[in-house]
Amino acid sequence: MSGSIKLSTVELHTLIDGEDPIDAKKQAALRARISKEAEQYIDSPVILWPDIIFNWDVSLESQRFSLDGVTQGDFKEYYPDGFIFGYVSLSEFDKILCHYSRIDDGELWELGSKYSLANLIVYLSEGRAISPPLVKSVDNGEVIFQGGHHRYAIAKVTGVDVFPIHVQRCNKAEIDKRVNVDWVNL
Fold first, then answer.
1. Which of 31, 38, 50, 85 is 20 to 30 A removed from 122 (C-alpha atoms)?
2. Pairing outcome for strands 129-130 and 182-183
């Protein structure tokens, strides 16, 4: 067919999602490189990891990345007011995490995706920007992650204590009942 354009699956999905296909191609190449490098860290002890750098991106534009796989269009539709942001002590926050969200000693490589965890190790070791996890309270008095389990896991095992979180404004009062948050953008 004359004049037809061939698109990769990645490019086609990004067009459908309203994203930039050129940027998507670059991101796909980055993910492929990181994935290959990450293989060496699967099931490895923290002592064998590269230095981890948490370069927290707290910009409004990056809030959608607090949720896994949410497009900018979906974020604007379902979260038109965005999130509020604050810092917690991870050691205190860990005490109120639901057991489904929390990792305990020896569980680092047992819960979640080993591949996603290893990929994040490489990603963070390169100082790449990462958004804070999104959290919400549940009826039993605990808190869960709505996105960011692997970010939390790496922060916990590497000794991070001041930990940023995103929260929907409608959940702020319940979070405040459970943990002390130093709110930044009310």
1. 85
2. unpaired
